[in-house]
Specification:
The complex is a heterodimer. Helix content of chain A is 19%, strand content 23%. By secondary structure, chain A is an alpha/beta fold. Chain A has a domain of 90 residues. In chain A, the strands form 2 sheets. Chain A has a 4-stranded mixed sheet, with no helix packed on it. The radius of gyration of chain A is 29 Å and the shape is elongated. About 3% of the residues of chain A have low confidence. By secondary structure, chain B is an all-beta fold. Chain B has 2 domains: 263 residues, no CATH class; 108 residues, Immunoglobulin-like (Sandwich), CATH 2.60.40. Chain B contains no helices and 27 strands. In chain B, the strands form 7 sheets. In chain B, strands 20, 22, 23, 24, 26 and 27 form a 6-stranded mixed sheet that branches. In chain B, strands 12-18-17-14-15 form a 5-stranded mixed sheet, with no helix packed on it. The N terminus of chain B is likely disordered. The chains are: A alpha/beta, B mainly beta. Chains A and B meet through strand 1, strand 2, helix 1, strand 3 and strand 5 of A and strand 2, strand 3, strand 5, strand 14 and strand 15 of B.
Chain lengths: 167, 389
């Protein structure tokens, strides 16, 4: 059986409804039976030029997937995902809140930060600091390390990875 | 390298059309000298401009994510422009449809149930940069509907336009991608909700892939779906063709273009209340047809004619059977086949056919099923009468 060719039909917008007036005027006589599985397989194989086409295989893990590139922070039944490397300080008492498999409801950055201000804070960095070109002031880091808040780096108020400074 | 950075990439303009509130964010994954910097940019208003950072290093990947709010809202239909380089038009299949056809209520709520534990969904991804090739993947079928869709037995066309691959022999920095890889993946849909499984089951990719090392437009004019399933004409789901490059220190695949086509099953029909091959002394009154997975753009009806089945014959259209839809997803229905008498003349064999008109077969009817019965209403009695005196 020869492979079917793609024939573009004319676009004829039609309404949903019932009754004989729904049949388009240009309708001719039936010209084909709907295809059976066997006929379809034969047509597909003829088109691909081989006895079997591509085989379905399990999904490939995403190289730049959401979880792979994130740090998950759990707060009760809510969690938030922030860029990997954006949590620049986490005191011991909050370390169990950094999880590899978050559960519950995902909450966006703005809402999550607003709801957890009592144990999360942010530190604004410049673009050059984020990419490791320029170091963050040691005083600022020292100040946060003495506190008991989780510290997340932000650029223009949004979380960003902080690459360690490489002189 | 910085001098080569096109300035227009620095701005990522995000235009969103959504009733949802604060449910999207853009993630920029930037590769700088072997380091990966991730930057999440929430979007809190329906429209807005997001200022992203200039590209440095080997390139940057932009991803658009959406998540459901506490108040149920369908996923965003987003038109995303990342500078002049990237453009992703996203129209998810999870449309909400609540259709009334002349009093017949069709239960086709395509929205996924809100799931409290679900992760944000990746709607679009695009890698851009000074030395990142561009790829535009376009899928199309005989059905002009957007987003692209086709029927399980019908071929579709794949067009891949590749640009900005380095010309062989030209001087380019180390680790610049020199190939574009085209891969095909799939998601099976729930048979009645018509959306992919929330937990990611029924998804995968295919063993076959293509690699391109030259710029140009490549077309595969007739591609058939390969969705896994016991009946290949009855499968339901979507196939995506995605173009990737190898990027970053780990040579991981980054997507630079993609397109998805929905695949709906070939419809089926069962005629009930009348049996094939049976002799009837009068026309049955309670005949109906159960129609399953009618193509979203279709007109389906029954006809009756005298004689054995003969493809190509035009018979008497049974008015009560005509059912027309123009919507987002397949539908099921039951139609009565009333007043068969109008298609009947004298006694003999009669054939009932269920026909469907779709964008395929050049919008001419295809026969879904047929049934032949025998009608013998006039009983001839040979008798003699005599009297006894």
């Amino acid at each position: 059986m020869a492979p079917a060719t793609l024939v573009w039909a004319q676009t004829t917008e039609h309404r949903s409804g019932i009754g004989p007036e729904m049949i388009p005027k240009e309708t001719g006589n039936p010209s084909a039976d709907v295809i059976t599985d066997e006929e379809f397989i034969a047509r597909r194989n003829a088109g691909s030029g081989e006895s079997s086409g591509p085989k379905p295989i399990p999904p490939k893990p995403s190289s730049y997937g959401l979880l792979e590139m994130s740090t998950a922070i759990q707060s009760g039944s809510d969690f938030m995902l922030v860029p990997k490397g954006s949590v620049i300080w986490c005191p011991k008492q909050h370390q169990q809140k950094i999880v590899s498999r978050p559960v519950g409801k995902f909450v966006g950055w703005t809402s999550f930060i607003a709801a957890n201000r009592n144990w999360i804070t942010t530190v604004e960095v410049s673009k050059d600091q984020a990419i490791g070109k320029v170091p963050i002031s040691p005083e600022i880091l020292e100040h946060h390390r003495k506190g008991d808040l989780v510290v997340i780096a932000t650029l223009d108020g949004s979380p960003i990875t902080l690459v360690p400074h490489q002189p | 390298m910085k001098a080569l950075i096109p300035f227009f990439i620095a701005l990522a303009a995000i235009a969103l059309f959504s009733s949802a509130k604060a449910v999207d964010f853009v993630r920029q994954i930037q590769l700088i000298s072997g380091q990966t910097v991730v930057y999440d940019i929430p979007i809190s208003s329906a429209t807005g401009t997001v200022r992203s950072k200039p590209i440095e290093g080997n390139g940057s990947i932009f991803q658009l994510y959406a998540y459901e709010d506490q108040i149920y809202s369908p996923y965003t239909v987003a038109d995303v422009n990342v500078g002049n380089v990237a453009h992703a038009n996203v129209a998810l299949g999870s449309n909400l449809v609540d259709l009334n056809v002349l009093g017949l209520h069709l239960n086709i709520n395509l929205g996924e149930e809100s799931s409290a534990s679900s992760l944000p969904k990746l709607l679009a991804e695009k890698a851009v940069g000074s030395f990142i090739p561009q790829a535009t993947v376009t899928l199309s079928s005989a059905d002009p509907y957007f987003p692209p869709r086709t029927r399980a037995d019908q071929p579709y066309r794949v067009k891949v336009a590749i640009d900005r691959l380095p010309v062989p022999g030209s001087e380019v920095p180390e680790n610049v991608p020199t190939k574009v890889r085209l891969e095909k993946s799939y998601k099976l849909y729930h048979p009645t909700l018509h959306v992919p499984a929330e937990n990611g089951s029924g998804q995968g990719s295919y063993s076959e892939a293509f690699e391109f090392n030259q710029n140009g437009t490549y077309t595969m004019p007739s591609v058939y779906q390969n969705l896994p399933g016991t009946s290949p004409t009855r499968v339901i789901g979507e196939e995506s063709h995605s173009a990737y490059i190898r990027l970053g220190s780990g040579n991981a695949l980054a997507k630079i273009g993609s397109s998805t086509i929905q695949i709906w099953p070939v419809s089926t029909a069962v005629i009930q209340g009348i049996q094939a091959g049976k002799l009837y002394y009068e026309l049955p009154q309670q005949v109906q047809a159960t129609l399953t997975d009618l193509y979203p753009d279709s007109v389906t009806y029954a006809q009756i004619y005298k004689g054995q089945p003969s493809l190509g014959r035009k018979g008497h259209t049974i008015p009560s059977s005509v059912f027309s839809i123009n919507t987002f997803a397949p539908q099921n229905t039951v139609v009565p086949l009333q007043d068969l008498i109008q298609g009947v003349t004298d006694d003999g064999d009669y054939t009932i056919e269920i026909l469907t008109i779709t964008p395929f077969n050049q919008r001419q009817p295809e026969r879904v099923t047929h049934l032949t019965f025998q009608l013998k209403r006039n009983i001839k009695v040979n008798a003699s009468m005599s009297t006894m005196e």
